[in-house]
Write a structure and sequence with these properties.
elongated, five-stranded antiparallel sheet, 42% helix, alpha+beta, four-stranded antiparallel sheet, 652 residues
Length: 652
Amino acid sequence: MNLKDVIEQINGRIARSILDENGFLNGDTRQEEGEDKILLQYLLNEKMVAQQAKKLTDSEKIVLAFFIFGVGHDMVTYRQLEMWSRTAPYCIISGLTGLRRKGLVYTLRRLWGELAYIMPYDLQKIWRVYLLGDNHSDTSAEGLEATNPSVLLCDVLFSLLQAHRTQPVSLTKRGLPGVRLRREWCDFLTYEEEAFHMFYPAGQEDGTAIYVFFLELLKEMQLLIPGERGQEELIVNEKASAQLFVGDASTVQARLYPTVKRMIETQHPLYPIIFEWLESHLEQWVCMEAVCKQWTQRIPHVGRLLDAVDEKREAVLAAGRKFTEEVVPLLAMFGFVSLVETSRGVHMKYLQSDIPRSIPLEGEAEYTGNTGYGYVQPTFEVLLLPHAPYEVRWGTGAFSHLAERQEVWIFQLTRRSVQSFIGNHGAAVEDILLTLSGIHSGDVPENVYQQIRDWARLHQTASWEPVVWITCPNLETANQIEMDPVLSPAIRRKISGQEFLVDSAAMPLLTEAMEKWGVPLRENYSGGDQAKPVQRTPGKKEIAGTDYKVESVFPNLADALPELKSIPSIWYKNWQKYHGSTLRSLLEAAIAIAIPVSMEYAGEKLTVTVEEHTQHNGLPAIIAAHESRRITIPFADIGRIQLLLPKDLLFE
């Protein structure tokens, strides 16, 4: 969920509160634009991010780092927050409340009532860039021999689709790959089965994980679409496949990368952040261990008070290890990255500098018949050289079989492949000969030329087209249809004065026209008089995120943390000395919910977090955390003292 999606759901009062809290709004801008547009503009502005960072409290910095480097594209439920903040509730809840008022974290309410908190993804990214600053590449892997993929992902998908251009993909009734399909695909899928267990652990025992992954990948990219038998049969989408296989291998790989990346990102909420980091170092070697180390350094270490932060630090390291062990080898196996292992760890670099960019598919140049891509042999073999673009390979595969795929790709022309192409695609034999002449440097061998023409001549088919029989109630309506400039091109044949054969695709236009003329159109079946009922599917009412909505409520900090209501206001409003018994009560309250304290000690004014009571030389004392060190402070040495509670967050 990005910031725009969130802002569209909050009301104007909350938007104005966020703008006022950050000082973004003045009298002029309030009238010029709406609050939502101003909020979106300011929160995603790098200069404003720097200004906001200077105003953050220590609690807000801790929670912000918690969301950016620990939570990632996940959400924190209210129950998780309650559990994590048990040892230091004030630090977590006050930090969260402050971030919500500043518009950095938002509250979601699930449809079943549970609360959750999320930081918009694009807002995370701009803050992450600000906090990490300039990054430097790791040069320790330069000059070392890197591992290269044995088979590129684009070549594997080409082979799978080529094998099913004339043969549908048969699935089980549950829509899963059966034994027959796995037997057909095992020669193409030469990757290690274990690499796909992270996606489908249930397929580990029967060895179907790799087949399910590629099936889902092809369906996700619309390269395979349902056939006549629905989900039990998939056929190759020629249009989408032709759009995919345009250009060289690196270009096709770039089109495949976003879909593979989306499938990987769903495995862990921190994976999108790792990809974001890697894609900012496209032409550099990156050490995965160094990435995780730098992340954990950004999550502040605050000792025993915040066990949740330390848990997230370990979770980040675990996510990095899992990414290194499972995802990086998969990216290398598919041909997206190159790997080098050194004493420092695993280093990776993208093979193409533009690999993360999703290249548009529409409007790309089609094969124009340039010569010199290979040879047409008298043995009916078509040899395509390594520099042949993929659109030539896909076009050649339409009327031939891919026999061998090494450095030189070999396609075999057969009678069945040629006749199937002419029959299924409605193409002419000249289309085949034009493609072959564009591939071959010179004239196509005479025997191949004549044989293809003979195969085409022997192939005779009957044709049919879907039409609808329209019976008009009178001649006046029939004449209106015949004279209508929009409907007349759709008429295939006039049967009689009041009957037509009309293209089935034109039925929506015809229905609309009939309604305008006041003539109801009903559908008869089997020649009967009873009208066939029309089933209408009610449209789905979309809710943001499908199962949650943004909550437009800012509770008082005292409402979110009821313990604050029992604290005397003098303790956080006044800066003064207290009697020993009162001082003990004040410090016990500070320990209970981890409220930071400002106190005089040894002639200095310190800001500390009180951790526990202790004894010093037989007298009462406290152990406090101050600037990453722990100090023992006797009660007798404490001068003026004050609880550091933000007054504006307590009461509105």
